[in-house]
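Section 3.1: Structural characterization of target chains.
Under the original work plan, the team committed to producing a structural model for every single-chain target entering the pipeline before any wet-lab resources were allocated. The record below documents one such target. The sequence was received from the expression subgroup and is listed exactly as submitted; it comprises 217 residues.
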Amino acid sequence: MHTLQVKERAVGNARELRRTGFVPGVVYGPSIESTPIVIGRKDLQVLFSQITRSSLINLAITGEESREFDVFLKVVDYDPITDEPLHVDFYHPDVGSPLKLQVPVKTVGECVGIKSGGILNVQFNTIRVHGLAKDVPALITLDVSDLDMGDSIYVRDVDFGEVEPMLPQDRTIVTVIAPRGLLAEDEEVEGEEAELAEGEEGEEGEAEAPEEAAAEE
């Protein structure tokens, strides 16, 4: 679990904090009072490089009373020009109550199907799960190395640990598809084969006609 050191702050000095290299924020949840905090911008940037939105963070607050909360990153407001974080919300869930959270999906490995010209189609970049905060994974990693053209990974193929995916078991997460050019070639070949089959049937029918005519005579 990642730890972030923050300080409790007074309300109303957010602009001055930003000018001096800090980012204002707040931590809240159903079982705690909303608490304004301040974080060093560099500390926050380091944290962002190490976590996902479903990573559980140990938030250590110093102030009149030192406290620690396990939290999730909830909302980040960014400056539209500089892209610097302006404000951060952290959410502290009830320890014993399950919650629903989106977990990012990451694929690793190079598909066999891609080497043959296929395209890896990721249908879900995140998957919503249901479970206790301590059991929520920071990342769902899928090894796609063995996938060939037309192969897929379904929800039922993934180990979600102690949490439950909120998708049907037969839902496709990733699949290897043929490129359009290859599909067009396949369709063209199928069309030619169909025409050839029709031609052969026609020739057989024409060969039988004279025999029928002779029989009538």
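The two ends are 95 Å apart (CA to CA).
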